[in-house]
Design goal:
The complex is a heterodimer of chains A (205) and B (228). Chain A contains three helices and ten strands, in the order ααββββββββαββ. Chain A is mainly beta and 205 residues long. Chain B has a domain at 47-117 and 164-227. Classes of the chains: A mainly beta (205), B alpha+beta (228). Chains A and B meet through helix 1, helix 2, strand 1, strand 2 and strand 3 of A and strand 4, helix 3, strand 5, helix 4 and helix 5 of B.
Chain lengths: 205, 228
């Protein structure tokens, strides 16, 4: 099935999948001199886990091992959830911000569906309240994809793709993970979710 | 904000006669007896991708409904598995390609993932419990939590300017052309619901199908697009 891979990789449309480095004019260091790494969404995931729903947002990656996480106090991360009415009108907006206590970094999570106020605590620590678990930290990039093979194929015109080569091997992202009891989200309709990033004072480029 | 309606069929005006034919690729589908050319011959056929957008990709969801509006959908009454949500281990890209290019009445949405086209999984195992993601690679600094009295920016949401958005994997990157990307990322699913990007998505999918059809056909996997 090598030619199947050739076919798909011969065009340049998957190079940025899933959302890493997109939009390129704002986040890709190959395109702009002032890429907004902190605001660059990598991926969004959601699934059911027992009687809860898990949502994962990865960003600021992929980056090589040994680099620290990216916690920018000027970026607002929002997980939007629509669970009633129009699927594009979010009833729940969970907003994440980073802040400092000296050299230590903390996270503030507002808009949680338990009706409480902001949940605040250090990064790299699981925060919990009313059955909700939340955490921000640095993790392995969970995405798998042979980006190098694509680039080689494009440059040479010859298939250089390998299903055994994952461009994201050994790479990390900063991430937010939240687990919410399904009963707090489910109103009997399909849940529609999307994430946004926004920068205080305007875009970098 | 509420101009969203369900649109079971997009009914796109897709008579898009794109003649790629950079190599003068032969019409008529002959495999040709002429001298071989170095690059694979491109097709001069143009395709109608409407059947792709209209096909059912998940229970109650057409492809068009999955990508417009650009949200990740999770029906908690149904089992996990992309495109019902997206688990860390789901081969979401290969599945997305399958429902954009292949006739799902004749083959499985897993047809490409089963090859597999991409690496089949992550390089590290995911954790079975919260936070599920694998620990970071290497020995990066800053993994020890600390601090109590954190100071956060206390500014209204309106003082932030949107940079990026994401719902479905690969939609913004695959189906939105470069010239449209910034505007697309400025917008919201509510704007998607006004059908603003329908023609862009259809055009891009048509372009890709025209470009890839020749090679996909060699795999024996059935295309959802129909030749014009």
């Amino acid at each position: 099935m090598a030619f199947a891979a050739t076919a798909f990789w011969a065009s340049d449309w998957r190079v940025r999948a899933a959302d890493h480095f997109d939009p390129p004019a704002r986040t890709d260091p190959l395109v702009t001199a002032t890429p907004d790494k902190a605001a660059d969404i990598a991926d969004l995931y959601t699934w059911q886990q027992g009687d809860s729903v898990v949502i994962v947002l990865t960003f600021a990656g992929p980056q090589t091992a040994n680099l620290p996480a990216t916690y920018d106090p000027d970026v607002l991360y929002t997980i939007n959830i629509s669970n009633a009415g129009a699927p594009t009108d979010p009833e729940i907006q969970i907003r994440w911000k980073f802040g400092k206590d000296g050299q230590n970094t903390g996270v503030e999570i507002d808009g949680l569906p338990d009706g409480g106020g902001p949940l605040i605590g250090p990064v790299e620590q699981t925060l919990s309240r009313n059955g909700i678990l939340a955490r921000a930290g640095l993790y392995d990039d969970p995405f798998f994809f042979d980006l190098q093979g694509f680039r080689d194929s494009k440059a040479s015109g010859n298939l250089s793709i390998s299903k055994d080569r994952n461009f994201f091997n050994g790479q990390n992202d900063t991430a937010m993970v939240i687990q919410i009891p399904t009963s707090m989200l489910n109103k009997g309709t399909v849940l529609n979710m999307w994430a946004t990033t926004a920068r205080f004072g305007g875009q970098l480029s | 904000m509420t101009r969203t309606h369900r649109w079971p069929l997009l009914a796109l005006p897709l008579a898009l006669p794109l003649a790629l034919g950079a190599c003068g690729g032969g019409g008529g589908g002959s495999s040709s007896t002429s001298t071989p050319v170095t690059p694979p011959p491109t097709t001069s056929t143009s395709f109608n991708v409407q059947p792709c957008l209209d096909q059912v990709a998940a229970p109650g969801q057409t492809v068009a409904n999955l990508v417009i509006p650009d949200t990740l959908k999770l029906d908690v009454s149904q089992p996990n598995g992309f495109p019902n949500g997206r688990q860390l281990s789901d081969p979401a890209i290969d599945i997305t390609l399958a429902f954009l290019f292949l006739d799902l009445t004749k083959t499985s949405k897993m047809a490409l993932a089963n090859l597999p086209l991409d690496p089949a999984g992550n390089d590290l195992p995911f954790r079975p419990a919260f936070p599920y993601l694998a620990a970071p690679q290497g020995n990066p600094p800053g993994l020890t939590p600390g601090g109590v009295n954190f100071v956060f920016r206390n500014s209204p949401v309106s003082s932030y300017v949107q940079v990026d958005r994401m719902g479905m994997p690969a939609v913004a990157t695959v189906l939105i052309s470069t010239a449209t990307k910034n505007g697309y990322n400025d917008d919201s699913p509510a704007v998607d619901g006004t059908r603003k990007y329908v023609s862009v998505i259809a055009q891009d999918l048509t372009d890709f199908t025209n470009e890839l059809e020749h090679d996909v056909a060699k795999t024996g996997l059935p295309l959802c697009a129909k030749g014009l």
